[in-house]
Prior knowledge:
Largest sheet: 9 strands, mixed
Strand content: 25-35%
Number of domains: 2
CATH class of the largest domain: Alpha Beta
Radius of gyration: 22 Å
CATH superfamily of the largest domain: Alanine racemase
Number of helices: 12
Helix content: 25-40%
CATH topology of the largest domain: TIM Barrel
Amino acid sequence: MHPFPTLIVDLDIVRTNIERMTAKAEKADVEFRPHFKTHQSRKIGRMFKDYGVKAITVSSPIMAEYFVEDGWNDITIAFPANVLASSYYHRLASRCNLKTLVISSEIVKKLDKLITEKMGLYIEIDPDYGRSGIPVSQTEKIAEVLNEIEESDHFYPAGFYCHAGHTYKTRSEEEIKELSLKALKKLTALKKKWPDLPLCFGDTPSCSVLDEFVPADQISPGNFVFYDWMQVQIGSCTPNEIAVYMECPVVEKFEDRKQVLVHGGAVHFSKESIQVNDYLSYGEPRLKHLSKATYMKSLSQEHGIVQCSKEVFEQIKVGESLQVFPIHSCLTADLMGQYHTTNGKVLDHLSGT
C-alpha cells in the first residue's frame, strides 16, 4: 500500500490489449502504427515489438526523441508541423524515418527552407471533426498542398492522416460504428483520387469496435493500450480491459454526507470529467460495481471527494487505499510521470525523465 497517490499498471491487461489490436489490424490487412502518446513509456513500448510492430506514432518532437533513443526508427509525429521546431525535425530526420503532418502549402515552403534532411509529410484531413486538418471535401486545397510537397527539395508525400476524434462524443458501440463508418465513407473519394498514397485512420473508439477500415491502409490508435472510464462510457471497452488505476490514500470519512476524502486531486487525475447518467464523474472507484451511487464527485489540487452509497461508505476504511479508474488515462499518466506495476516494479514515463 502506497502512502501517496500512485498510478498502478497491470501489464497482463496491457499485453492483452496490444495483442487484440495487433490481431485486428492484421486481419483487416492494415498497417498498425500505434500512437504512444498514452503510455509514453519505453518499457511498455518494447512490448509492441513482441507483436511485430515496427512503426509508431507520437505527439511531439520531444516524444519522438525519447523513443528514437530506444531504437525506434520509423516515427510519425501526429501533430501539425511547427516551424519553430524545425531544428528538432532536422535532427530527428537524420536519425530515423521521420514523418509529420501539414495542413497548408505555406508551412511546406517554410519548412523546406529550414530542413536539409529527407522527411515524410502526411496531409492532415479533417473528417468534419473540426479540430485540425483540411476538410475532406476540399480536394482542390488538398491537391495544392500535395503538389507543394512533391515540388519541395526535402519532403515526400507520406499520405493522408485522419483522426475521427468526434467518436469521443458517442455513448454506445452502435453510435461509434455509425460515426466511424460515416467518416471512412467520406475518405473514399480521397482514396480513389490518390490510390497510391497511404491513408492513416484511427482513434481508439473506432479501432476498438470496427473490424474493417476500408479505405484506410493504416491505423494509429493510442488509448486502447490502457483504456479508461471514458472509453467504458463511450462503448469502446469493458471495465475489465482498463489496465491502469490510481491508488489513493483514504484520509477522512464524512458520515453525514456519505463522502470520503482521498489524497488524489487534479494534479494527479487532471480535471477531465464525464457525465454518467445523472452525475458528473472525475474518476470511478474499482468497486463501482457494488453501487451506482459511488463516484469521484469533485477534485481540487490535492483533494478528491468520493461520493459513496451507504454500503460502500461502510466498507471504506481510513488508512487504506481506494483504487480509482481515471476518466482519461493519457492525462493521468502524463501527470503522474511513472508507473508502478502490480508486482512492485517501477516503469519509466517520458514526463518523469
